[in-house]
Design goal:
By secondary structure, the protein is α/β, with parallel strands linked by helices. It folds into two domains: 3-235, P-loop containing nucleotide triphosphate hydrolases (Rossmann fold); 253-482, P-loop containing nucleotide triphosphate hydrolases (Rossmann fold), CATH 3.40.50. It is 34% helix and 25% strand. The strands form six sheets. It has a six-stranded mixed beta sheet with strand order 6-9-10-3-11-12, with helices on both faces. α5 runs parallel beside α6. The protein is globular. The structure holds adenosine-5'-triphosphate and magnesium ion.
């Protein structure tokens, strides 16, 4: 074993993030770390990476007991975290990003040649499809992830830890990351891999460890288990892995969009899926409809009325909500408590006169917390302190409570665990039954096929196909890649 954790404990105030976390990683092993939102996965790897200190339990690195006070100490012994949220500087080159914060100097000047040379050798050694002098801003998301991996590989680490590396990638791009992970495994590097995409496990993992409520409840070789069994260990009960939605007759027109390259209509009771590779322009459609990006010449109407949407406020007034994929930047007021985040888009409903009625606000928040199983220490906790998946649930709760006619979901289940996914789909179905119209952008094709009534496929900023729900993943991918 290179890494052995046993009975790790960590508390944040009243929250027991970890009660009994155990994990043992061998060299050359891909070890998947699985669990519901808030189970303690990120906390455990942050302790290994020296970003957090444990309260108790034993941590051994290559047989020696260790206690890292800073991430530099973990880095020095060969432990690396490959970050999930991109920390790259977009205007710099691949090489400059690989060396960001630890640039070699040559008599007080940056040694550009050394950086380029070393980066080129890492790229070559691992057969990564990038050049050292490419600008990061122009790279596709999967390639940005590769730059993060290169950063981590500098200095020949023995352990790489990935926290949801594929959550923002499409299936095709995730395949590229898998290829790289396998290559790293062959070089004898130990890998810890956190994911909510359970379908990936059989493809990538050697060993699976499952955390529930801060405790390691199960660990076994990937070949000896099934998705169903994993889910049972994760949530402590049986959950249907496949969600099925009955189709309904669509009602009156809710949204009609006629913009260059993008024209469709959406009716009450409908869930319209939008597929495409990352970067195909799906998010831009949502941002245009929600007034974040200026609309190109064309028309948008809501409930048959033409609308001039120039800001999110215009969109909300017209009856459009956006559940964004980018919860940190646009979805949440991270410093405010969960209850305020949930009621923020519909303050009128919790105000008595012009002041917020805090009892009413708390009741609403508590109701949504239960319905979406948001794991938070009461509703007083600030949104910043929640685990990634729980933050996403708060964003969804906010728009459910706002009660608009048209709801745009951009990657609604990103980072959300299986149990809550079913819950989110059930809520979307309920909204549709209540007469709302839903647009759902997703890179998870199986989910689109389960939930959507029709699927639009986008490629390079334009819609290239509209497919019925009976279509297949292969057909969607064909249109997304080829364009006709
Ligand atoms: N800085 C913090 N302050 C307070 N509570 C925290 C903090 N960081 C994490 N927590 C809490 O610790 C628990 C475990 O969080 P963690 O981020 O490890 O979960 P996770 O398994 O990574 O979940 P997800 O799948 O949603 O990313 C959660 O209840 C979370 O709210
Ligand atoms: Mg996490």
């Amino acid at each position: 074993m290179i890494l052995e954790l046993s009975s790790i404990r960590k508390r944040f105030g009243g929250v027991h993030a970890l009660r009994d976390g155990s994990l043992s990683v061998r060299p050359g092993q891909v070890h998947a770390l699985i669990g519901e939102n808030g189970a303690g996965k990120s906390t455990l790897v942050k302790i290994v990476a020296g970003m957090l200190r444990r309260d108790g339990g034993d941590m051994r690195w290559k047989g020696r007991s260790v206690d890292f006070h800073r991430s530099a100490e973990a880095h020095a012994v060969g432990i690396r975290m490959v970050h999930q949220e991109s920390l790259l500087a977009p205007h710099l080159t691949v090489a400059e990003n690989v060396f960001l914060g630890r640039e070699p100097l040559k008599s007080a000047f940056l040694d550009e040649a050394a950086m380029a040379h070393k980066t080129a050798s890492i790229l070559e050694e691992h057969r990564f499809p990038l050049q050292a002098d490419w600008k990061v801003a122009k790279l596709a998301p999967a390639h940005k992830q590769i730059v993060e991996i290169c950063r981590a590989l500098h200095g020949d680490p023995s352990l790489l830890m990935f926290d949801e590396p594929t959550s923002s990638l499409s299936d095709a791009e995730a395949t590229e990351v898998f290829r790289i992970v396998r290559q790293l495994r062959e070089k004898g590097i130990g890998i810890v891999y956190i994911t909510h995409r359970l379908a990936e496990l059989q493809e990538i993992a050697d060993q699976i460890t499952i955390l529930r409520d801060g405790e390691t409840v199960h660990s076994c070789p990937a070949s000896e288990t099934t998705t169903q069994e994993i889910v049972r260990h994760m949530v402590g009960r049986n959950v249907a892995a496949v969600y099925f939605r009955d189709k309904q007759p669509p009602g009156e027109e809710r949204l009609k969009v006629d913009l260059p390259g993008v024209a469709f209509e959406l009716r009450a009771g409908e869930i319209l899926g939008v597929a495409g590779l990352v970067g195909a322009g799906r998010t831009k459609v949502c941002e245009t409809l929600f007034g974040i990006t200026p609309a190109p010449p064309g028309s948008i109407s809501v409930n048959g009325e033409p609308c001039d949407i120039r800001s999110p406020l215009d969109a909300v007034e017209a009856g459009i909500a956006l559940v964004t994929e980018d919860r940190q930047e646009t979805g949440l007021a991270v410093r405010l408590p969960v209850r305020t985040n949930i009621t923020l888009a519909n303050l009128d409903a919790v105000c008595a006169g012009s002041v917020v009625h805090s009892g009413r606000e708390r009741r609403v928040a508590e109701d949504y917390r239960k319905r979406l199983q948001i794991r938070a220490d009461a509703t007083e906790q600030s949104a910043r302190q929640l685990s990634g998946g729980n933050q996403q649930k708060v964003v969804i709760a906010k728009w459910l409570f706002r009660d608009t006619n048209v709801v745009l979901f951009d990657e609604p289940t990103r980072g959300i665990d299986v149990g809550a996914k079913a819950e989110v789909f059930a809520l979307m179905d309920k909204m549709a039954r209540e007469g709302k119209a839903i647009l759902m952008v997703s890179s998870e094709l199986p989910e689109l096929l389960q939930v959507a009534d029709r699927i639009l496929v986008m490629r390079e900023g334009s819609m290239v196909a509209e497919l019925p729900r009976e279509t297949t993943q292969q057909e969607i991918m064909h249109h997304a890649a080829v364009g006709h």
